[in-house]
Specification:
The complex is a heterodimer of chains A (about 120) and B (about 110). Chain A is mainly beta. In chain A, about 0% of the residues lie in helices and about 55% in strands. With about 110 residues, chain B is mainly β. Chain B has no helices and 9 strands. Chain B starts with 8 loop residues before the first strand and ends with a strand. The relative contact order of chain B is 0.34. Classes of the chains: A mainly beta (about 120), B mainly beta (about 110). Chains A and B meet through strand 5, strand 9 and strand 10 of A and strand 3, strand 7 and strand 8 of B.
């Protein structure tokens, strides 16, 4: 059974940093690209970033480019999102999602809440 | 990249059918057949419901179907059941090698 478990969320001040983790199990982690998707309060889903299975290719939404860094440790079956220069508009539930068939997100975690506030 | 446009809410009675629309542009929905739909019960993990516009992953009920015409994709749920009450999101791959989601539609089963 595929399981994705996010952690690392919390309250952080504007301008601060936070690192999210996503522990994966139930599939061959290194074979699949992984994504981060977020949902701000009362808003819809927003794709944030993707990383290839090997970790050598990454893409970002314009809203986080230059501030967030996606990475993975295939030896630990773990996905990361390093978030720097955080803004109030980054407040959201952050989900990790497994990529499937090039274009889809077939499994998701339950999310971790990030609140950016002074 | 602007979010895809979905109605904020739809409703229907048990046994009825509803359709949720998802409108984008030629750079996303209209340009690719990589449209998908996700069911989200708040507080839980989103569930993958439709891919390639109209295909269902294994285990998804055949009461769920998808279609596309031009820049607008649609999700139809037939034989509404109480457990279908949830938020539904469409998604499309884009010409920028990124993904865009819709704003979400809250389905209420009356």
């Amino acid at each position: 059974e595929v399981q994705l478990l996010e952690s690392g969320g919390g309250l952080v001040q504007p301008g601060g940093s936070l690192r999210l983790s996503c522990a994966a199990s139930g599939f061959t982690f290194s074979t699949y690209a992984m994504n981060w998707v977020r949902q701000a309060p009362g808003m819809g889903l927003e794709w944030v970033s993707v990383i290839s299975g090997s970790g050598d290719s990454t893409y970002y939404a314009d809203s986080v480019k230059g501030r967030f860094t996606i990475s993975r440790d295939n030896s630990k079956n773990t996905l990361y999102l390093q978030m720097n220069s955080l803004r109030a508009e980054d407040t959201a539930i952050y989900y990790c999602a497994k990529k499937w068939a090039n274009y889809y997100f077939d499994y998701w975690g339950q999310g971790t809440l990030v609140t950016v506030s002074s | 990249q602007s979010a895809l446009t979905q109605p904020a809410s739809v409703s229907g009675s048990p046994g009825q059918s509803i359709t949720i629309s998802c409108t984008g542009t030629s750079s996303d929905v209209g340009g690719y057949n990589s449209v998908s739909w996700y069911q989200h019960h708040p507080g839980k993990a989103p569930k993958f419901m439709i891919y390639d516009v109209s295909k269902r992953p294994s285990g998804v009920s055949n009461r769920f179907s998808g279609s596309k015409s031009g820049n607008t994709a649609s999700l139809t749920i037939s034989g509404l059941q109480a457990e279908d009450e949830a938020d539904y999101y469409c998604s499309s791959y884009t010409s920028s090698s990124t993904w865009v989601f819709g704003g979400g539609t809250k389905l209420t089963v009356l």
